[in-house]
Specification:
Distance between the termini: 21 Å
Oligomer: single chain
Number of domains: 1
Number of strands: 2
Shape: globular
Strand order of the largest sheet: 1-2
Number of helices: 8
């Protein structure tokens, strides 16, 4: 279920990403002498992004696991849901837009490194560009990270972010190979659906943390000796 949610988030958000990451996807050093070479180059580039997302999911899944062990999973789930809702209704004050000096310097270094690779037409450079692109600031990626934290598990956190990356695959591949096939009207329609999906995800996180005893939606959570048990299937 969580993997399907991750893919759906990535797919819906990918059309929003076309406006943000589209210029990068159009500028990557892909050999366009044939449709196959363009497809292969785009596949290598996007595979790099997914690898980075998987690593981020692993790290933030580890963070979520720490909350679970500490018995704070309910607070974590509710807190993440509230943060997502605030970012939707109060975008100017969104915590997702806050960047510290350290992060700003890190992002600048990533951009400089990427810029140096754009003139190198090799599969290795394409993969590294994808790896670095996965580190660039993006509100949708932050939403995916919130989901990976909420899993409360290292493996699930990694799989959540990789599923998110797979969801972005179709649109990002399409814009690299056949950029004219996605109409502006279609992109705008999908973009309008992204906040709705994010809001649903936030509400589900809040319900999950409230321990209402509703199977699969808000199962009761019992914590004992560092172990968490979801009582979602009791009759």
């Amino acid at each position: 279920m969580f993997f399907l949610a991750a893919i759906s988030l990535g797919f819906l958000g990918s059309f929003h990403c076309i406006g943000m990451c589209g210029p990068i996807a159009l500028s990557i050093p892909v050999k366009r002498d044939s449709p196959f070479s363009a497809f292969l180059g785009s596949l290598i580039y996007n595979s790099g992004r997914i690898v980075t997302y998987g690593v981020l999911g692993f790290l933030f899944g580890m963070l979520g696991r720490g909350f679970v062990v500490a018995g704070w999973q309910s607070f974590l789930s509710v807190g993440l849901g509230v943060i997502i809702l605030l970012s939707l209704f109060l975008p100017r004050f969104s915590i997702l837009k806050i960047q510290t000096g350290f992060l700003f310097r890190l992002f600048e270094k990533v951009k400089i490194r990427m810029g140096k690779l754009f003139g190198v037409y090799t599969n290795r450079s394409l993969f590294i560009i994808g790896l670095l692109n996965g580190l660039l600031p993006c509100g949708l990626v932050y939403l995916g990270i919130a989901g990976s934290i909420a899993t409360g598990d290292i493996l699930k956190g990694s799989l959540f972010m990789m599923g998110f990356g797979l969801g972005t695959f179709p649109a990002m591949m399409l814009i690299s190979v056949a950029r004219d096939l996605i109409s502006i009207r279609f992109r705008q329609g999908i973009r309008k659906a992204v906040p709705v999906f994010a809001g649903v995800m936030a509400i589900m996180l809040i319900l999950r943390g409230l321990n209402l005893g509703i199977p699969y939606v808000s199962p009761s959570i019992e914590v004992s000796e560092g172990m968490t048990q979801h009582n979602c299937c009791k009759k």
